[in-house]
Amino acid sequence: MNAADTLDVLDESTLAELAGDDTGDIVGVLVAGFLDEARERVAAIEAAMAGRDIGAVGFQAHALKSTAATYGAPRLSRHAAAIERDARDGRVDAVEAAVTDLPELWRETDRAFRARYLSG
Fold this sequence. Notes:
The chain has helices at 12-19, 26-50, 54-70, 74-88, 92-117. It is mostly helical.
């Protein structure tokens, strides 16, 4: 188990800050936008890995890391940070292993956000 496995899928304090005083649907709209962007980033990471473009993997992982942290998805953010770091350091085997684990982590994150914000 790595350190990211011990993090919650959703970070309650970040989500509370995101929601603020919103009593409308704005958080749901923001979350839907985040999920669309994150899904595209995960797909781009997988495609870049398939093409062995480690620079593109690192670039996409950096963007995913930042967005996931902003939206309160610490496990996804930490995993993307590890991919970014390993890509930067040229550890192709580590990048490949982490990218292999990324889709399941992404699905877990997506399910958690949808259950909380988009189920109604």
